[in-house]
Amino acid sequence: MKDQKIRLSHHDSRWLQEYEQMRSCLLDACQGWVTATEHIGSTAIRTAIAQPCIDILAGIQDEAGIPEAAMLIEGLSYRTVALPEWCEGETAICLQKPRNGMPTHRVILTLWKGALWHRVARMKLWLETHPEDVRRLIQVKMHLLQSTYTIEGYEQGKGIFFSALDDQISAQENRE
To answer: Residue 91 and residue 79: Cα distance in Å, rounded?
Structure first.
């Protein structure tokens, strides 16, 4: 992953179709373990720019099924990778589907309606309804693209943005 080049694209209408296809594959392959999926990340937001990798949140009702579901997803040419920093400390497994060394799809396997599920779904809804924050995210991504040469630096920079946005959302919820 260290040698990956950061590549950003404007929204591609095929991303939703790819998500739907992978959703169907996941639900079928996981034999009932995965009960819900959500298209997340910038490829799910029509006005954002994104790395061309479809991010999927896959929910399981029983924590004991996470390892079994991960093994079944690996059968779809995925491989288990380290959790992204924003998932650390959560009950989750991350799997990626690489093509020519670059991930094309990433699945975060976690508890349906658990803390991680709630946080990610809340963030997606916020970005769908707050275009000014999507514009800020695009500015952050463009700055990171110009100022960092590593995927790790790019991901850390986005993490700072999303952590601040999560705090902003929590503050807004507390005021309501």
So the answer is: 18
